[in-house]
Amino acid sequence: MTVLYTAQWVLPVATPPVQDGAVAVADGRIVAVGPEAEVRARLARLGTLETVALGRAALCPGFVNVHSHLELTALRGRLEDLSFFDWIRTLTRLRGEQMAVADLEVSAQWGVVEAARAGITTLADTETSGAGFRALCQGGLRGIAYQEVFGPDPMQAKKSLTGLKRRLEALRPAETNLVRLGISPHAVYSVSSLLFRLVIEYAERQALPVAIHCAESQAEDDFLRSGQGPFAQFLRERGIAWTPPRVSTIRYLSDLNVLRVKPLLIHAVRATEEDIGLLTFHGASVAHCPKSNAKFGHGIAPVSRMRQRGVRVGLGTDSVASNNVCDLLDEGRFAQLLSRATQGDGQLLPAAALLQWMTLDGACALGLDDRIGTLEVGKEADLVGISLASPHLEPVYDPVAALVTAATGRDVVLTVVRGRVIYDGQRVLTLDEEPLRERLRELARRLGTVHGT
Question: Which domain holds residue 25?
Answer without folding.
Answer: 2-61+380-426
